[in-house]
Design brief:
With 587 residues, this protein is of the alpha/beta class. The chain has 24 helices and twelve strands. The strands form three sheets. It has a six-stranded parallel beta sheet with strand order 9-8-7-10-11-12, sandwiched between helices. A four-stranded parallel beta sheet has the order 5-4-3-6.
């Protein structure tokens, strides 16, 4: 995984598929602006939000002015606001529940209690109250604000988008609504519309550092990162204890390679709010990147607390590493395909604890995983599971086995290609002249970090011009079509035949070398014990550590790192020079 936040936006996609984040996630920045005639319930929202409001005695169906009920409602609301300001949410909920009993058809009473429930993290109840308020009065805007934020927080992008669009019909000049709409559009990959939304928000509030931050982080090639850092610092000057801003600043610093400062701000965010799980998850990625595995693996478990991540709901207990005593354990894949391949190395260690293993994998990995030794049942994710006694997520295994940088299971190869498949690929590639080099230039477009890790194929022309080398494209997916932009004899395209990872393994077995960006093919080559050269962005994924050109996870892998943000030319030049030397030596 990598950090979490907005430039760093909320990063929740895995490598190619999966349920957990592999990127820094952020609580995107926003401001809070209550309606002019209402007071904010409890200051600004965390993350990107529109602040719902407490409306005093301004109810849709108020008690008659000066009546005992009206006076009591006013007193209860004032007391509730004080309790919310003190973060005494149970007391505030009790007081606002009394208000609702006094005026059960008031949209404001429902909306205010919804805000208290939201702050107490009772999200389902908060959503029900906000929806009831809107039913009672479709024009009651604060409830629409709260509902939009609740939908955004639970990552229901489509519903949140619709809710913000309806809200903007009521409040077309609401800068924060445009800002939050932009963040949702970015998450939906509707980048042009996102830029328009940010521009509208910025026009309405040109001096808001949060809006400026979000606008900057959608710029290509991280060109806005330095200014985004300045925005975070300006926001902290206004609100020094804002954990969301600290989270975003931490991620921004991480992407610029200022890791010590990034850790410091992540630590501060966690200290302010230990339940700020985005910050804790981001901190885990920084710790792992720096090789601090003991604490890093512990904090890495916070991924299951992120709203975008759903832990499988098995009734069986999670395994903590004890001897299995003949019991059956389910190992559940998660995150990207590369993450799964990386952690399949732990399957023999689990088997050594005296049990049977059921391995639940995406279908494209099933035939590849069949090369694992031992009593392993492989269950694709779309078939019914056999019985099992315990379970464990695959990416929790490094923690279970107390993995340190110097104790990574690195017996290679731990995966193989079926002989019949390897032989078929041997015949398929045998006639190619010179050094046979597999090439991958792009990962999945669904990966939040894809713009940083993938390379435009045309940018690789200096590498593709290496004499005495035949390049074999291992690229799959939409980016395989990039080959059509090159002269017909530049790349030997076999993408149509790479129907699963067993086929890709057969091809790699018959190549001399793989050169790739950070994708699952790198993990596959490393797991097969084949040489692979990896072109890495300036701030790499945690598993590649820092300031080294080798990998303790894969002894046959060599790392080529960017030396500045978005600087691929130097990486490509170094790879091309080393490839020329290797081809000459092979000759």
């Amino acid at each position: 995984m990598t950090p979490v936040s907005e430039p760093p936006a909320a990063y929740f996609e895995g490598d190619e598929t999966g349920v957990a984040p592999d990127e820094p996630i952020g609580d995107e920045l926003s401001s809070s602006e209550p309606e002019a005639d209402h007071r904010p319930l409890a200051g600004s929202l965390s993350g990107l939000a529109l602040a719902p409001v407490v409306a005093g005695s301004d109810f849709a169906s108020p008690a008659p002015g000066g009546s005992p009920a009206g006076a009591e409602i006013s007193r209860l609301n004032s007391a509730a606001l004080a309790k919310l300001s003190a973060k005494d949410y149970p007391a505030a909920i009790e007081l606002l529940s009394q208000v609702l009993q006094l005026d059960p058809i008031s949209p404001v009473a429902h909306g205010n209690l919804g805000v208290a429930m939201w702050r107490a993290r009772r999200f389902a109840r908060a959503e029900a109250l906000s929806r009831r308020a809107i039913t009672l009065d479709p024009n009651y805007v604060p409830a629409r604000r709260l509902l939009a934020e609740l939908l955004r927080e639970r990552n229901d992008v489509a519903a949140a988008l619709a809710c913000y669009e309806r809200l903007l019909a009521f409040e077309p000049d609401n800068a924060i609504a445009h800002n939050n709409l932009g963040l949702l559009l970015r998450k939906a990959k509707r980048l042009d519309e996102a830029r328009e939304a940010f521009a509208r928000a910025r026009a309405l509030r040109p001096d808001d550092p949060a809006i400026k931050f979000n606008q900057l982080t959608i710029l290509p090639n991280d060109s806005g990162l330095a200014e985004a850092i300045d925005c975070c610092r300006a926001a902290l000057n206004q609100n020094p204890d804002n954990a969301d801003v600290m989270t975003n600043l931490s991620v921004s610093l991480q992407f610029t390679g200022r890791y010590d400062e990034a850790v410091d701000y992540a630590e501060r965010a966690v200290a302010i709010d230990p339940e700020r799980y985005q910050a804790r998850f981001n901190l885990s990625l920084l710790l792992l990147l720096r090789g601090e595995y003991a604490r890093g693996w512990r904090e890495y478990e916070q991924r299951w607390r992120l709203p975008e991540v759903t832990m499988p709901k098995y009734r069986q207990p999670i395994w903590t590493g004890e001897h299995l005593g003949g019991r059956t354990i389910l190992l559940q894949s998660e995150q990207g395909l590369g993450d799964t391949i990386q952690c399949l190395r732990y399957v023999p260690l689990v088997l050594a604890r005296g049990g049977r293993v059921v391995l639940r994998l995406e279908r494209v990995l099933v035939r590849l995983a069949a090369s694992l030794a031992g009593n392993v049942i492989i269950a694709p994710t779309n078939v019914r599971l056999p019985d099992f006694d315990l379970w464990c997520p695959l990416l929790s295994l490094p923690r279970v086995f107390d993995t340190r940088v110097d104790s990574i299971p690195a017996a290679m190869p731990y995966l193989g290609a079926r002989n019949a498949i390897a032989e078929r690929w041997r015949r398929r590639l045998a006639g190619l002249p010179g050094l046979k080099v597999g090439l991958v230039w792009a990962g999945s477009a669904n990966h939040i970090n894809d713009a940083r890790r993938s390379i435009d194929l045309a940018h690789l022309r200096p590498l593709l011009a290496t004499p005495r080398v035949t390049f074999v494209s291992l690229q799959v997916g939409p980016r395989a079509a990039d080959i059509a932009t090159l002269p017909s004899d530049t790349l030997h395209d076999v993408s149509a035949e790479l129907t699963d990872f067993a086929e890709t393994a057969g091809a790699i077995r018959n190549l001399d070398l793989v050169i790739a960006v950070d994708t699952s093919v790198v993990h596959l080559a490393g797991a097969l014990g084949k040489p692979a050269w990896v072109m890495l962005p300036f701030s790499p994924d945690w598993r590649w550590l820092l300031e080294r050109d080798d990998s303790p996870w894969y002894p046959t892998v060599r790392l080529y790192r960017q030396r500045a943000l978005a600087e691929w030319d130097g990486v490509i030049a170094r790879v091309a020079a080393d490839l020329r030397a290797r081809a000459a030596a092979a000759r």
